[in-house]
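Bench log, entry 3. Co-assembly request; chain sequences pasted below exactly as received.
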Amino acid sequence: MDILATLNPAQREAVEAIAGPVLILAGPGSGKTRVIAHRVAYLVKLCGVNPHHIMAVTFTNKAAREMGERLGQLLGEAAEALTLGTFHAICARILRRDGKAIGLDSSFVIYDDEDQLILIKQALEELNLDPKQYAPRALHSAISAAKSRLISPEDYAQLGNSYFEEVVRRVYQRYRGLLSQGQAVDFDDLLMKAVQLFRDHPQILNKYQSRYVHILVDEFQDTNIVQYMLMKQMAGKYRNLCVVGDPDQSIYSWRFADLRNILSFEKDYPEAKVVLLAQNYRSTKTILEVASDIISANVQRKPKKLWTENEDGDSVTVIESYSAEEEAQSVVNEIEKLIGQGQVSLKDCAVMYRVNAQSRALEDTFMRYGVPYKLVGGTRFYQRREIKDIIAYLRLIHKPQDNVSLTRIINVPARGIGQRTLIQLKSRARAHDASFFEALKQASHNVIASQGCEPKARQEAQPSLPPRIARALAGFDALMANLIAQSRERSLSGLLDEILQHTRYREYILDKEDGEERWENIMELKSVASEYDELEPEEALSAFLEKVSLVSDIDELDEQANAVTLITLHKAKGLEFPIVFIVGLEEGILPYSKSFGDPEEMEEERRLCYVGITRAKKRLYLLRSYRRSLFGGSTANPPSRFLQDISPQLVSTRRLWQESLSSLVSACSQPSPLSSNTLTLKVGDHVRHSKFGRGIVMNCLPTRDDQELTVAFEEVGVKKLLASLAPLEKIEKDFDFPS
DNA sequence: CGAAAGGCTCTTTTT
DNA sequence: GAGCCTTTCG
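Structure output for the full assembly:
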């Protein structure tokens, strides 16, 4: 196959420019991923570069996997020798191999977000700071921001002098201490420590620089300063650094992605070749124009004109509804209409929203109408409580110094070791500069010793523990000792069984809400673990732990399943669908209210909207609703400013409610098409039920061919009924509906 | 010690 | 409306 034949001139230029730095500015739908894959293939097949010398970096595991598959097709076996992965995975590999030089134990554990938060809370506690006054999340964010810019606690001291900054510095310092005590690193450390390693050990840097002759970075607009430094270091020798990105699709500044990297690139590499991929292969002309109308209102932006040879396509539909429920319903109606016309199937459709909470109204409606959907997001597999519990056991077996894991599972399932005991352990650990686990060992051991012999002179000021507690601690110690011994003998899945059996985890979990489902998750985890059974037990354990810390999604988005996709705008980046609905185009939702005070954040909201619009291939629907209840309270929001930025001739608007009736019209304003044979009721109607007596309709939700009513009866209270089945008659209003 | 009950806050998300 | 944290009671 000719690697260049299928490329347009700009793409071809990007592929062929193999010597020196290259900046590829790739508009949405411009074939960016293809360009990267073909560039690698070109290097290997036509330029004779050994794949061992090529590194391609992505942001997500999914992107890395897809790139791997693509290159597997293009290169076959040779693709195996490429270095392909996320920034974090690549850094973890480097640090396991060479981190000793900066005092990092090669068996370090990697703490995720939740673990980090626990550590921050612990730091606050130790510093006697009130977590209500200093929100752990905010501190975490500030610390992460510092790390993403390579700022140490020491640097921080010189940086700012507000009181909050002083608090951040102190927490940061303590947090760092706690991490190193547990021989743990957080995600930011993976990057930061790699940069430090290279900075302080030129001979190690030289090893990597010599190996990686060609480096490619995808989604460059999402890199932060540390990531940029890292690439700069690695590419320091050959300068064959190719970065691909689109400033207009930068939507992760809140994760400290820094758009200035693109500017720095042209400054640090003045010889860089800049290639613009402006031809769009995805969307209709109309959709592209709408996108352009939206994005051109951003001030901090280099204008770039995208174009397409695709057809004009239909105009964009704006639907204005009364409530989020009605909005969801019009999405369903529209999807059914499109499917009825043929040519479109469920999996071609996606509904996108700003915040996850919006998915609820959509799910309800899809469920009621029996339209299959797949929700992207929600709690991720490795974040589920039961999974994290089991992993904490594994981690503690692997590394008894891991205080966070110990804290997590010392009393899970409950074994009589409560808050007070834990505080005791913590202070003992601090006093002896030991891990919690060592403190626990010692505490339980002391008591056992003092039971046999004469009570020794108590060398510590600490009070001895009550026997009941000591027994509980000794029990836990014995449990762990046994598991640690087993871990050297048994396969990984065998070890998992041991954990489950000795902790009686099954009984524990089946007692809880959704116990069955949670147990199945654990069985799923076991089946993942059994993939490591061939390895030596200790190697299997560390490989497995590495995988679960750096991989987030086990349950892939099932692309086969014929169902509508419900997804946040953020997650939709990189995807495309023939039919796209964006819901909640209201001030306060999109743009989100938090961005009102800050023009830069507002520009990011606009980019987010742009990302959503440019996912659409054939048809785009923009929806807004007059009222919306989010987080309890209900508000009336004006239409999104983004809607006003679209040229009117590109749009056709459908209004489903009238302002004058707005207090009465709700989801019922659009009766479902098949409901004519049943009694049609609306909110506020008075009814009589043969058994329950008189009542008022509080709510009515149309389903495919019925209505689901919520009725408040005078005598028996609130009931939910189906209009077709309930013996109801409509009666005259004889008392006032309290509104 | 541990279950149960009330108060508080609320983006976006990958590693 | 839900999840998390603190408080309270058995």
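Chain A has 27 helices and 24 strands. Confidence is low (pLDDT under 50) at residues 448-461, 662-677 of chain A.
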